[in-house]
Amino acid sequence: MTTFADLGLSPKLLKALESTSFTTPTPIQVQSIPHVLKGRDLMGLAQTGTGKTAAFGLPLLHRILDITHPPGPRHVRALILAPTRELVQQIHEHIFAFTKGTPVKITMVVGGASINKQSERLSKGSDVLIATPGRLIDLLERGDVSLEKCGYLVLDEADHMLDMGFIHALRTIAKHIPQKRQTLLFSATMPKDIEEIAEAYLRDPVRVQVSPPGKPADKIVQGVHFTPQGDKGRLLESYLKKHEGEAAIVFARTKHGADKLAKLLVGWGFNAAAIHGNRSQNQRERTLAEFREGSLAVLVATDVAARGIDIPLVRHVYNYDMPNVPENYVHRIGRTARAGAEGSAVAFCAPAEMEEFMAVEKVLKKAIPVLGGAPWAMDVAKAAAKPGQNRNRPQGGGRPGQKPGNRPQSAKPEGGRSQAAKPAAAAPAKGNGGFGAPHKPASAARRSPARSGARG
Ligand SMILES: Nc1ncnc2c1ncn2[C@@H]1O[C@H](COP(=O)(O)OP(=O)(O)OP(=O)(O)O)[C@@H](O)[C@H]1O
Ligand SMILES: [Mg+2]
């Protein structure tokens, strides 16, 4: 069996690993680390919960440990970008644990926290900066940080980072980074059209694919109920009662929907709370911390918690609403069954969500076992109102093949990807960091920039 030492990691890192629970590298780590150590660009695809963070974090730290002089004031040697504040914080914690006993300086910047304090921390320079794109742009605009000497760029949740919600921010950031650098992209999903965009950001990359992109983690037991929207609450209640005391995440489509559902569950006596983009950073952090330590049993979340979040005790994921981005199903259910653990994922599909459900099965290339009801006939599905919507209103934002409409604010999906047409908007512009091969814009044209989240 391959060991971390066999992969060629520095003795300092091997020493730091001794104080973690990591004994043997996971497949994505075995297959990626040697390439990253050699300086290759890389796209790494592996199921949720299989250790992608260390697959980029460890070799990155190894390369930085080789440099003996400290980074200059405000300079950054390596940049890791992730889509949400919570994920940035988590990556920071994980990477920080690997730097124990080394002089490597790690800094983190996210929205919702004091920019002046972040600026002060950046003033001394950072070996590794972990950031959400929005806050990093704010700091770049203020001249508080320089990426002029940044030799490494990592995009965690790469397909999401290259999607319309973030691509503009990413292009802005890329302008500040030298073209000569090592770029690493990691995710559990990689839709074909995003992969084309990704290629333009990589130079002669190695592609490491441990499992087909979009394959859910091995030990997740999945199921779906076809149920009228109005029956979902009681169905969820029965599941939560059946598994009382076991940590569960319930995914709702909108911030308003998440709040409403959390209130309903609290009213029914469950220890539940919501996390979404409209809650203050303090509330977000407190809720997640309580859930992490087990004092909160049920976390009701929008897609803000769909990607990357690593909470080993999560046993159940409920898709109360189907995700409007099919790949997010894989990420949502991947919040359970991490690092080889077991977990269950139950989806509730109302008639109006049949289209989303079918899109999910297409990504999975597999049918989800039916636990209740039967797939809705297309005429029933088409006649149904979308959750949170008035049947007579125009529908939009994230619905396949539809343009964003005048949806009431409360019913806006969070963290979704809209697929309405907007020609070639995702192409990295020539000469502004679109390093590498010219971009093929054709399939990018299917995605629109209507999405929130880039100002993390
Ligand atoms: N070699 C290892 N040995 C033991 N545990 C590990 C190892 N590598 C990672 N882990 C643990 O596995 C869990 C999942 O790791 P990580 O969050 O990096 O997964 P991921 O592949 O990035 O998942 P996602 O796609 O959901 O972001 C973490 O708790 C991490 O500490
Ligand atoms: Mg991850």
Helix and strand arrangement:
Layout: H1 11-18, H2 27-37, E1 42-45, H3 52-65, E2 76-81, H4 85-98, E3 106-109, H5 115-122, E4 126-131, H6 133-141, E5 152-156, H7 158-161, H8 164-174, E6 182-187, H9 192-199, E7 206-209, E8 220-226, H10 232-242, E9 247-251, H11 255-267, E10 272-275, H12 281-293, E11 298-301, E12 314-319, H13 326-333, E13 343-349, H14 354-364, E14 370-372, H15 378-383
Parallel strand pairs: 1-6, 1-7, 2-4, 2-5, 3-4, 5-6, 8-13, 8-14, 9-11, 9-12, 10-11, 12-13
Helix pairs in contact: 2-3, 3-4, 6-8, 13-14
The structure holds adenosine-5'-triphosphate and magnesium ion (MG).
Percentage of residues assigned to helices: 25-40%
CATH architecture of the largest domain: 3-Layer(aba) Sandwich
At CATH level 3, the topology of the largest domain is Rossmann fold
Bound molecules: adenosine-5'-triphosphate, magnesium ion
Distance between the termini: 40 Å
Oligomeric state of shown chains? single chain
Number of strands: 14
Low-pLDDT windows of residues: 390-410, 418-454
Rg over CA atoms = 21 Å
> How much of the polypeptide forms β-strand, as a percent range?
15-25%
Give the integer mean of the pLDDT values: 88
- What is the CATH level 1 assignment of the largest domain? Alpha Beta
Strand order across the largest sheet:
3-4-2-5-6-1-7
Structural class: alpha/beta
Q: Biggest β-sheet: count, sense, barrel? A: 7 strands, parallel
**Series of secondary-structure elements, N-terminal to C-terminal:** HHEHEHEHEHEHHEHEEHEHEHEEHEHEH
How would you name the CATH homologous superfamily of the largest domain? P-loop containing nucleotide triphosphate hydrolases
- The total domain count is 2
Mass-distribution shape:
globular
What is the overall number of helices?
15
